[in-house]
Input
Amino acid sequence: MNFFQFLQQNWSELFALTREHLFLVFVSTAFAVLIGVPLGILLTRRKSLQTPILGIASILQTVPSLALFGLLIPLPFIGGIGAKTAIIALALYSFLPVIRNTVTGICGVDPKVKEAATAMGMTDGQILRQVELPLALPVILTGIRVAVVIAVGVATIAAAVGAGGLGTYIFRGLRQNDNNLLLAGAISSAVLALLADFALGQIEKIYALDVRRNKTAQRKRKFVLVGAAGLILTILTLPFLLNLKSETSNSAIANQKIRVGSKDFTESVILAEILAQNLEQRGIAIERQFELGGNLAHDALVAGRIDVYPEYTGTAYTAILKRQPLTDAAEVYRQTRREYAEKFSLNLSPPLGFSNDFAILVRGDVARKNNLRTVSEAVPLARDWQTGFGQDFMSRADGYAGFSRAYNFDFAKQPREMDLSLTYRALASGQIDLIAGNSTDGLIAALDLFQLADDKKYFPPYQAVFINRSDKSEILSETYAKLENAISTDEMRRLNYAVDGEKLTPRDAAAQWLKEKGF
Amino acid sequence: MAEESPIIVEFRGAGFEIGAAKILDDINLQIHKGEILILLGESGCGKTTTLKLVNRLIEPTTGEVTVEGRATTEWNPINLRRRIGYVLQEAGLFPHFSVAENVALVPDLENWDAAQKRERTAEMLELVGLNPQKFANRFPHELSGGQRQRVGVARALAANPELLLLDEPFGALDAITRVKLQKEFAALVKNLGKTAVFVTHDLHEAFVLGTRICLMDKGRIVLNDVPENFRQSDLPLAQAYLETISTEESLAADGHR
Output
């Protein structure tokens, strides 16, 4: 499928994502302006506050965006997952240019003009409204333009906290190794940024002083203002209008609604879809909060922002409970279940049947040429290999450090730490030689990769389960009973490949599987 | 004649300091109704600071300044400033206001009705020699320096203030325009019976316009007298100023008469 066919097939989703993206950008910019401009004005009146407040705004801008989203999740009221958190994070990023340009603009007004205004008997408020703000407007507008362009870019990260937007395509594209998705997300957000830059630049021009003084420009200004206001209103109200119905009906049976979360990789999304669709068949209202990065899903569950999400016992045991890895699957499940109940009062579903263990992968041709079967057999060959691992594998207790020690690996080169989904691509194209993937990954077959057996039984078992808030256990138990041991490793690999390789949506793949199983 | 008129502004031992720096020291001065008082001196002598004390753009750190018998610190600064016209160098016109809007500024702040404002604006523009039809809707950047200064004067006069403060209003103009405006302004103030305090460093201008000249040096008033007596002064600084115009004596005398 080439890019244009992709666009033809997906234009309506792309349009919806673009609208979500614009919504995030406009609302966050509106916040930044409503708070930033008055704050900037305050700073011109209380100069001693300038250094600390501009300093804080500068520091906020240097916080990596994903980290900022992560910090916001556990906070009450302003935190959580979804659009609200994203808007707050984006607004925090947009503060600096808005505040700074307000200060610069107002301080840049000719002191003779300010002196005249004071001497004519204008009050401070009148000077501000009639003299300083109109004269500073072009500079303030520049600040807003910069803020919008930054927000368009940063908003792509918002997909990681379930806020949607074009980042959804970019993250999905990275995960599924799909250039069309990547391009559609990246090009669209770049085009949005350029359009916003151009459009706001035009408004700025019309407000620039010498054009403002002539009559046709004044008429043009009114026209542009009305147009811009109309456009913004439309974009702002559209999502509300479209969502209004579901919102109201949801709130009526709010107690029955289950908010299903997922982590930010294909398998987690498919499992979440399977659960969600089964619940929907039972007439239970579902809110989807998918594709939460890192440990966000767990944080969101503990904070009560979601009710249930798919997890792996090994991850829960080592990464969240911080225990030393165990090799007995039943023991890991038992201990995790007990400690989750005690520590977080969260409940584990019965195992779903498959485990998604770490899979040490090499290229198929390398494995065949050297007749490799197990990890141990690869150790003597691997001295000059370049390895590449996801951030997760590099940092977790049962990850790289323990693994290389257990097998006595002696890699001459430092491992490359990179995005997990990119390691597949890098391995297949020969830029790296060994990676740690997931055993159920559909790409293993699709890219002709070979999984080396974990002959020293180093990796703990990663049985798939759902984890839910205890108050939803009752409503979920019927679905849990159906899904217990229902998905084999092979089936999961096929489901993953259906999405990553055959480009089915996770929703369709899940629906197909549920139908085959007769649920 | 000036001596018998009521006192409009009075400085009583007024001083102004920034930190340890004495900008003004013990200024005592009475300004009577109908006078055009010239504050003459070099840059940094404190003449502009003296002017700004009158409409409370700054407040004296010692002594007091009274306007119509009340200390400036007792006046509401907004009310005080709206009663006093102010003209500064390069006019200080609002670049985003038309000529008419600039002139009608104080009447607008005082909530005059639209017809009244329009009429007053036209009257003021006529008064300073600008055709209202032609100039009312122009913007400051479309005017010459002299025209801008005329608009500045019109703006200062619009709310019919008793007192005008002028801070080197003609300083940045070319020589021919300056002389023309000086003559017109002198006639204008005399006809309207206004009181004016006029800051300049140009003795020629002081002679053309002033009914009294206050020579300032290092934050103090060193001479305060009518122009005729200024010419006779043997003060070294006054002598130095007189030398600057000795070659154009006759011209200055013409302007004065």
